[in-house]
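Incident log, structure service

09:12 report received: a user says their structure output differs between two submissions of the same chain.
09:20 pulled the input from the user's history:
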Amino acid sequence: MRLLVVPLALLLTVSGTAFGLAELRLAKPAAPAAGDVVLGDAYAGQLVFEQACAGCHGDGGRGGGIGPKLEGNSIGLSAAQARIVAGGGAMPPALVQGRQLQDVLAYLATILAAAR
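09:34 re-ran on a clean worker, output below:
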C-alpha cells in the first residue's frame, strides 16, 4: 500500500506546485510602453507584413481574413506593438520580433489612420 500512496502523493504535490506556478504567470512579458516604439524600414516591413500578417489582415492590411482591417484603422502604433508582442484573440504572440517588428511597425505607420 505504501508503494502506491507515496508516489501518488509526490505526483500530486509536484503537479499542484507546477500548475500553481503556471497560473501566476511570473514570466509573462510586460506590454511595451508608448515611448518604446522604434520604427525600422517601411519597405522591409511591407515584405514581412505580406509574409507573416497578410494571411489574416489581407493584402496591405485591407482586411479579408480573420484579423481586423488595418488600413485606415485608428489604432496607435504603441497599441499595435503591444498587440503584436502579446498577441490576443486568434493572433499568436511575438509573430514578428526584433528588427522585423520595427520594420512592420514602420509599414503600419504608412497604413494606419492614427499614424497619419
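09:41 both user submissions now match this output. Likely a transient worker issue. Closing.
09:42 reviewer note: Residues 11 and 17 are 10 Å apart (CA to CA). Helices lie at 2-24, 42-52, 54-57, 77-86, 98-111.
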